[in-house]
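so im writing up the methods section and need the DsrE family protein record in one place, dumping it here so i stop losing it
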Amino acid sequence: MMRSQIFRAMLLTLLSLVAPTLASAQQVPLQDKPFAEHKIVLQLSDSDAKKQALVLSVANNLLKAYDPDKIAVEIVAFGPGIDLLLSGSERRKQVESLIAQGVRFDICLNTVDTIERETGKRPEFIPAATPVQVGVGQILLLAENGYTLVRP
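--- predicted struct ---
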């Protein structure tokens, strides 16, 4: 009996130490689109120019097909996909235009941190991009909250 009480106390202590870490690792809040009838998350995980163009085209077409207030579009870039959101990107104006129309672009900070570790220089990304700690975690959060994942 004493062992189980000690085990419970140790478990509670461990949870109290881990809980703040889990809370700080949470992703950014969901978009505030109360009238959205459709919720789409587009995954971008490679740096291929054709894939980048396709993701931007899909987002643009969704905005044209639906009233921008009735659709929530979020593009999550991680791994080599963050190239689209770097400050020197050739498609920066397209990205910023979509952001102005309500599309949210998430950039994975784990990827940014990895690049900084490997190169010694932190890549600069478009200030309007939303930093998330874990890109795939953000996709999971969105999927759990009614977003449909599309990987063009």
